[in-house]
Amino acid sequence: MAKRPADARYLPTHEWGRLEKDGTVTVGITDFAVDQLNDLTFVDFRKEKGDKIEKGESFGEIESVKAVSDMYCPVSGTVLAVNSDVSANDFEALKKDAFGKGWLLKIKPSNPKELDSAKSLADYEKQLASEAH
Q: Which residues contact 32 (CB under 8 A, 6 or more apart)?
């Protein structure tokens, strides 16, 4: 399992966002979410390149044999790219590299500081520990 990046920020709903050197924000779901969902069956992106998105807005759903989960955006802005490698039936990138090749959206943020309100890696890992049964 890939090490969770310390330079990303995490939502309580298991999405992550990382401010890149070029000023864009890469968004994905965490390895924990992928593991919890387990047997992935479908990803439905509600946003396309050029669409506006608001912080906290759902940008799509991810389905598994067990559940359907909305995916939420950690920042407001404009969608620059949707990862076509994570398609309706191919989840290898997501399973193997949730913080790299398994990214979901690239966003041009209207306010990159919005990311600061998301959890640090340490706080996210505390949340996971408290959720563990």
A: 14, 128
pTM for the predicted model, two decimal places: 0.94
Distances in Å between the Cα of 32 and the Cα atoms of 2, 25, 122 are: 11, 20, 14
Euclidean distance between CA atoms 109 and 25, whole angstroms: 7
**Residue 75: partners with Cβ closer than 8 Å, 6 or more residues away:** 17, 25, 27, 55, 107, 109, 110, 111, 112, 114, 115
CA nearest neighbour of 98 among 109, 86, 108, 82: 86
Taking the C-alpha atoms of residue 29 and residue 36, their distance in angstroms, rounded to an integer, is 11
pLDDT tens sequence across 73-128:
999 999 999 998 887 567 888 989 999 999 999 999 999 999 999 999 999 999 99
The structural domains of the chain, ordered by start, are 9-111 (2.40.50.100)
Give ∠ CA 81-83-89 in degrees, rounded to 5. Answer: 145
